[in-house]
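Before a colleague's protein record goes any further, I have to sign it off. I want your independent view on whether this chain really folds as the C-alpha cells say. The record follows directly below this note.
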Amino acid sequence: MIQALSLVGALLILIPFAASQLGRLSTKALSYQLMNFAGSSGLTAVAIVEQQYGFILLEGTWAIASVVGLVSVLRSGDRP
C-alpha cells in the first residue's frame, strides 16, 4: 500500500512537470497545481509513516509551495 501511494504521488508530480517542460501544460494551470499538491501530500504522508525526515522536509515544503500556487491560480481566475 505504501509503495503504491509513493508511486502515485511521484507520478502526480512528474507528469505535470514533464508536461510543463514540453510546453504542454502551464505551471499556472489549475490541473498542474492540483496534481503537484496531491502528489506532494501523498509523498509527505509516506515519509511521515516511514519516518524519513529529509523527505518530510522536502515533500512537506513542496506541498506548502503547491498550496501557495494553487491559491494564486484560484485567485487570479485565469486558468489556462
In short: Residues 27 and 66 are 10 Å apart (CA to CA). Residues 53-76 form the longest helix (24 residues). The mean pLDDT is 93. The helical segments are 2-21, 30-49, 53-76.
